[in-house]
Structure prediction request, 196 residues.
Amino acid sequence: MSTVQQRGPAPAAVPMAAAPAPTGAGPVGVVGPVLAVLLLGAGAVTIREALTGFGIIGGAPLLPGIARTADNALTGAWPIPLGAALLLTGLGLIGTALRPRVRRTFTLTGRTGIFVTRRDVARIASDAAAEVDGVLAARSTVSRRRVVTTIHTLGAEPAPAAAVREAIGARLQRLAEPPAVQVRTRVSRPVDGRIA
Prediction:
């Protein structure tokens, strides 16, 4: 049996780099399927024309009739604005395809690469608000820059709103870029022994 002796201190483990933040599909997720359907339609018409031209299926070809109609219709000055509109639409579609994708997560502080979704941040904010005295219920919505929490209370005193803002801010301080916190108060009134 042989033994291996190691001289000197053990090499320190190098931490892995954090993963990039996950992103949504972006606006190309809408434009892509629309263009795909248009290309499928053009492909189907082209295949039909080829099958008709080879005599495999019966019927008259569609494209020559469409070309004659378009040739007759393209007289005058109106094709110039149509061409400009199509050009601008094409440029807009290219711009949409090249736009950066939307970040839908928040990064936690540290080098671990842990992310939380907007839904998770909304749950954290709602839970923090619900734990404050005087709050009956809480509901939160989240964007990249702001958390809006609506609380239901029995009284119209401003103390619960300030306490809720503090509680949510304390919970969200672990985020690398915590969003601003906005609290809206709704006063609930008892109706027949129940809170309405």
